[in-house]
Amino acid sequence: MFRGLALLPLCFVVCLTQTPGWDLLFGTSILNETQQYPIKFDNPIPSWIKGSLIRNGPARYEMGKRSFLNLFDGYGKLYSWQFPGNGSAFFTTKFVQSLSYNESRKLNDIAPYQTFDDLVPPMNFFEKELALRNGLDNMNINVYNFSGDCVILSDTWKLYVVDCFTLDTIRPTTPNIPGVQTGFPYISIMSVAHPVREYGTNYHLTILQSLNILPDMPHKFTLVRSKSADIREKIAEWEVKKMPYLHSFSTTEHYAIIFGCPFYIDILKMLRYSLPKDSIEFHKDEPTVTYVIDLKTSKVTTIENENIFTMHHVNAFEEDENTLFLDVASYPDASLVTFFEMDNLMNATKRNELTFKPSLRRYRIDLKANKMTPTSFDINPKLPFVNMLEVPTINENYRSKQYCYIYGVVFKSDNKLWGNFSFVKKDVCNSSGDLSWSIPGHYPMEGWFVPHPNGSSEDDGVLMVPVLDGNLGKSYLIMLDPKTMKPITKSYVPFTVPFHFHGRFFENVF
Predict the structure, then answer these.
(1) In angstroms, rounded to a whole number, what is the distance separating the alpha carbons of residues 503 and 409?
(2) What is the pTM of this model?
(3) Do the Cβ atoms of 245 and 265 come closer than 8 Å?
C-alpha cells in the first residue's frame, strides 16, 4: 500500500467494501513490468487498427521508509497496447527511468527531488533545499509525438525522451528557446502537460512560464512552437502581474487561447516551502484572465472572464475572423487539486463529501468587442450526468475545427458516490445524441478516439478505454463503438493498470 496500514484511516476496510477494487485503483503500488506480453481479445480486432495506445501515470507511491501523500507524486509508469495489424496484440509496461526514480531505487528512499505535496516522513530542511535545486523530475502525466520524437511530460518545462516501441527511457531534455531570457531574475520551470497540435502543421504549441523572484516585478509568458524534443521557437511573449497555474490550453486555426484562472503561483512561497501545493492559491473574488494570441502577428489580446477554474480544455474553433468558441471542463474553484491527496482518495466519507462537480462550459469570444460570453450545454434528461465529464478527448482530426463529439469519464455519475464511473459521449451539437457506457464496480479511465482511416463522419472509429474491473481485481482494455458506445472487443492484461492520467494512440508504432 502507499503507506503502512497503521497510518491508514480507520475506515479503510469499510470504505473499500463500498467500492470494490478501489485500493488497486489508487492506493497500491504495482511494480510489475513486462515486454510485449501477448494478449487475446474476445472478438477480432478491427483490421485497420495498426499502432500503439501508450498511457502514462503514477504507479508507485513509496520507496523504502518514505511514502508520497499525493497521487500527483507517484513514480511514473508507461503502458502500451501494441497492434501490429495482423490480428495479434501485445502489452508492455515499464517504469519511467527518470533521474529521481533511479536515484531513489539506489538509496531505497525517496530521493531529494521536488514533489507537489509533502512526504511521510517529511524531508528535513537540507533535503528540501536540495529537492528545490534538483527540481521536478517525475514525468508521470502525458505522452506525445514531437515530430518523430516520443516524449513524456508533466506541468514542467523539462521532459524526457523515450522509445515508444520499447518504452525505454532515453534521456531528459530542458530545451532552450532562442531569444528568450530564462535566467535571473526568472525561474523558468513551469509549462503545460497538454501541448496542442498547431493547425495545419506537424508541430505542437506549448507555453513556458517564467516566474520573477524579485518582489512586485512582473512575470512572463512565452508561447512556444515545439519542432522536436529539443528544438523550440518563440511565437509571442508578454508580462503578467500574477502567474496562474496552467495544465492545458487551446488553439484555433489562427489563435492560441490561454485561460489564466485566478489560481496563482507564489514564487516566494515556492522558494520558502519547496512544495507547489503550498505555493498556489485560488482567489475567488478575481476574474479569470484570458489571453488570445494571434499566431501570425504575435498580438496578445487580454479579456477578463468569470471566476472559474479549469484543468482541461476540450477544443476551440473559429466562427469568423472575430468570433471564437472555446469549450472547457470547468469548476467553481480549485478544490479539485486537493482532492487527489491520498487521505481523501482512500477515505470514502471524505472523498464523497468533497465538492467534485465539473461542468462542460462553452465561451463565445468576441475579439472585436473584447468580450467573452459563457454558456452551458443542454442536458439530456435521460443522461443528466454526461455534462460532468472530465479528462475529455475528441477525434483529433477535428482539433481546432467545429465539432460535435466529446468523450470522457464521469467519476460521480449519481452525484453522490465517487466511484460510480461512467465513460460517456457528449454531443455538443444535439444533446439527444448523448450516450454512456458503464458496469458497476468497473472503473474506466481516459479513453482515446482512433479514427477510421476511411471514415466519413466524426464518430467513425473506435474508442480505446483502459478499465479496472474492481470485482475481479484485474484490468482490461475495451474498444467501444463511438456511434453506439457498445463494446466491440476487450482483453484483460496480466497486471493491474491503476488510475493514470493521459496518453494517446501512435499510428504505426508497435
Answers:
(1) 14
(2) 0.94
(3) yes
pLDDT tens per residue across span 356-373:
789 999 999 999 999 999
- Cα(135)–Cα(130) distance, rounded to whole angstroms? 9
pLDDT at site 7: 35
217: nearest Cα among 267, 166, 177: 267
3-state secondary structure of 16: helix
C-alpha triplet 465, 467, 471: angle, nearest 5°: 160
Distance CA 73, CA 119 (A): 9
Per the CB < 8 A criterion, the answer to whether 367 and 322 are in contact is yes
> Backbone phi, then psi, for 349, in 5-degree steps?
-65, -45
Tallying the residues shown for the chain, one arrives at 510
Which cell goes with 93?
509496461
pLDDT > 70 fraction of the chain, expressed in percent and rounded:
96
Neighbours of 31 (CB within 10 A): 11
Side-chain-facing half-sphere of 154: CA atoms under 13 Å: 25
Listed by start position, the domains of the chain span 5-504
Angle 305-306-308 (CA atoms, 0-180°, nearest 5)?
A: 115
Per-residue HEC secondary structure of 321-349 comes to CCEEEEEEEEECCCCHHHHCEHHHHCCHH
pLDDT at 17 over 60: no
- Cell reading at 90: 501485445
Residue 270 and residue 115 in contact, taking contact as beta carbons nearer than 8 Å: no
Any idea what DSSP says for residue 156?
B
3-state secondary structure 77-137: EEEEEEECCCCCCEEEEEECCCHHHHHHHHHCECCCCCCCCCEECCCCHHHHHHHHHHCCC
